[in-house]
Structure formats: structure tokens, C-alpha cells
Amino acid sequence: MIETLLCRLENFQPLADEDRRVLQQALTPPVRMDRGEDVISEGERPEHVHLMIDGWACRYKLLADGQRHIMAYLMPGDLCDIHITLLNRMDHSIGILTRAHVAGIPRQALDHIYAHHPELTRALFWSTLVDEATLREWLVNEGHRPADQRLAHLFCELLVRARVAGLTENHCMELPLTQDELSDAMGLSTVHTNRVLQKLRREGLLTLRGRTLSVHDWQGLTEFADFDPLYLHLERSERMSDLLGGI
Amino acid sequence: MIETLLCRLENFQPLADEDRRVLQQALTPPVRMDRGEDVISEGERPEHVHLMIDGWACRYKLLADGQRHIMAYLMPGDLCDIHITLLNRMDHSIGILTRAHVAGIPRQALDHIYAHHPELTRALFWSTLVDEATLREWLVNEGHRPADQRLAHLFCELLVRARVAGLTENHCMELPLTQDELSDAMGLSTVHTNRVLQKLRREGLLTLRGRTLSVHDWQGLTEFADFDPLYLHLERSERMSDLLGGI
DNA sequence: TTTTCACATTAACATTTATTACCAGGAATG
DNA sequence: CATTCCTGGTAATAAATGTTAATGTGAAAA
Fold it and tell me: Which CATH number applies to A145-245?
């Protein structure tokens, strides 16, 4: 049930069977959720760390004028910030984008891991560092890249992340996001997102159809997007070249 | 020497004298640096956590076309990410913006704090959570707010952060950033930044002159910018109202 | 089948922001 | 004292993106 998470963490360092078991046993039973529900909403007190078992979610904020800004996509195997329970109130919401199952890690279970399983603790800290680095890369993306490069960069990232979690087949992945949801993350209008997607398709870089992303020209796409996967910190570099060469 | 840091951390929870002393003693002697130098550069291996003693710095990345994107401003009392030493290589650089002094916290000293000073550890974790939340707010800012609101929002944030670190006088703070540096953070051209600053000045919201930011209409500015300080997580709420009412 | 609905697409037009290029003032420098 | 450089300010034009509104399309629902 937590293969995707383990698969992701092991890009940082291999885990002992003991660590894998401890992590598995720390989880609360997964809860089934549907598109449109919030895992947790802005202003609420965070009681657990959440883990996406399957399905997709996003971090988002609502602005004064009702617009939604998506700040991160969570795919299967992704964790919410493991320190989150330190805070009194959430400053953003986590919303479900597809039918999904979400498990939790109670605070005490985490404290126990910190105290007794240093390797696993390091892997979890690594995971939050990657989340933070991803946030920084998104900031650069929105601040300095035009719409077409911006979307291209997002697709590069999502494909690598999916690959790392074992969720790709060749150059394809399930990508259950509407153009509206892409727009809210990229800070674009849906109309413009649509224009840009067509352009990327016309240029033979990728297609996005029927909830599936297919990248046709990985090298062309990464060059166009100025994509450098360093920020994903796949520290076991043999695997990094597997990943990137293999795509 | 670490008053600003302590001042900031105590917005989360009060610290025992013992914790204050431990933190003080963990520091390496501050190094003097000048504008244009890098504390650490992209690709380098992070050996320490850094602390700004005085002066300003920024996190930034250089893009393929040579543009610089600033992802965070570091003012006195700000720490780099305390987990950073887990990573093999920096995915961004930290550059000095003014004459400054920078101290370090060695990895072992931090490990010792984690093992023996839980209150202080919580405060340090809180600090990184705030940094991350700030990054998310910047993402929203760049993605969804027009240039004038965007700059206004930045100034709101900087004034509150400075206030929290004890660096304001009334409605004023030292803000040693050029319009170029503001532009690189906001994803705007310098020309447009200049136009917008004039507009904010004309409307009586603030002036930025001679390295000093003076806010003339705090309430007007926060309303215009849609600024909600929740994301700064000043958990001791009595202090929050002090801060915000008092400005 | 028909209807409905969510999502994608298209077009015309408006607005924001970038680009380029030039000027002005003040501080540092020789 | 002249010079240079950094920073801020201005204007004309171009490019990117937003807005509004209408249409198409395919899958689910009735």
C-alpha cells in the first residue's frame, strides 16, 4: 500500500526492512475521498500528516476575488509536510482532484520514528526538502518563464516524479488534471493554457488527452523548458541517469 | 549577536535561558561578506546552516538566458534551511545584497540540539515551516496578483517580518534593495517596477527612498494587497495583534 | 434516444507587462 | 575637477496574456 512512497524515498537512500515495516505500521487506515473534498482546509488545525495512497490532490489557496491558486500537485506516494502538526492552523487547503485514498501518520508515530529510526527520519526529512525545492522551482517557473516553457517545465517535472514513484509506462503517465486545474497552478487563464497546449502538441513535444500525458520528444521538451532535475535531488545518481536516460 | 533570531523564534514559543545559550554557543564566528559574494553557490555541497547576523541576502537561481530569479530575501535573524546539510548539492545560490556578517551552525551542533533540546528543536522546525509557507505565499503572489498588488504584498510581508525581528521603527524599516533586485524577485521588468513604485507612492500608501521603506497607510496597504499574515504563523496571537495593530 | 454536463476549443478584443533606448542625479573614483 | 558607474526615471512601441462569449464534443444520466 505504501510502495509508491517507499519507491520515492529510496531515491534518497535504501531503507532497511525494519524501517519499511515501521513506516507501514505507522499509517492509519486509508480513507476514501472524492473529487472536490478537502483533506484539510485553511484555518483548520493539522492533526496528522497525510499520505496519498492513490489518486491526486493539490495544495491550494483561495484569493479574495475567489480565484484558486494551486501551489503543488500531490500524486500517489506524496506526503504532506511532516512538520505540519507544529502549526496551530493551516495556511492553505489540500483538495482532492480525483477519487482517492488518503492515509495519515499520527504525530506520536512520527515522534517515535524520529527518536528510534534515524535512517527513516533522514529519508522523511529529505522528502520535505524536495517538496520545498519544488516550490522554489515553481516560483522561478511562474516568475520568469513564459507560458509555453512554463507548462513544458511542469510536464517534465511531473513525468520525472511519476517515474520516481513507479507510475510511468514508457513516456506516458496518468495525469488526471483538467486545463482549468493546470491554469490555476500556472497562473494562466484557461484560454491561454489551451492555446499553449495546442502549440506543444503541434510541435510534436507531447499530447495530453484522455487523462494521459504522452511525451513524444523528451529531449526536445527538457531543452525547450530549460529543465534541470537537480532540484528533485535524486541523490542516488545511478538511478537518476536511469530515469532520465530511460524516459 | 543572535538577538534578532531569538526575537523571531520567540514569536513561536518562549525559550529557556539554557536554550538561548545553547544556540549562541552552537554558532561559528561570523564572517564578514560584501555585496555580490555568494554565501554558497548552486552545485556546492552544503556544510553548514547559515544565519544572517546583519545585512541582507537572497536565495536565487540563474536561468539559462542569464536572468536571475530571487526566491527569498534573508534579513538579519534569518536562517537557511536547517535540514539543508542532508543534500549533496545546493539547487540554488545564496547571495549577499549588502555588507553583511554571516555565521554558521555546524551539522553536529544541530544534531546535538535535536537530541537534547526539544523546545529549541521545535522552534527551529517552526522557523523552516514559516520559510516554506512564505515560499507558497510568494507563489500565489507571482501567479495570481497583478504587479501593483504584488509589490504591495511584498512590502507588507517585509514590514511584518522586520517587526518580528525587532528591526522596525514605527512604520519604517531599512530596506536595502534596488529596484532591480525587487524586479528579479517579483518577476517584473525594472521599468515596470519603477512605474508601480511611483503609483504606490502617488496613492499615499508608502515611499521607498534612500534604502528606507516608510509605510504611510498600513491598513490601506494590507487591504490593497489582500495581505493576511496567517502564513507567517506568529503563533502567540497576543503578539500578533500587537504587531499588526501597532504598525 | 435525448438530455445534460463537464471540458475543450475558438475568436475578437482589451489590458498588462516587456523591450529598448535614452536621460538625470548622486556617489564613488581617478 | 572630470569621469564613471550605479540607480532611478521617462517614453514609444511590441509582445504576451487576459477577458468575454460563443461553440464543439464526448461521456454519463435519464
Answer: 1.10.10.10
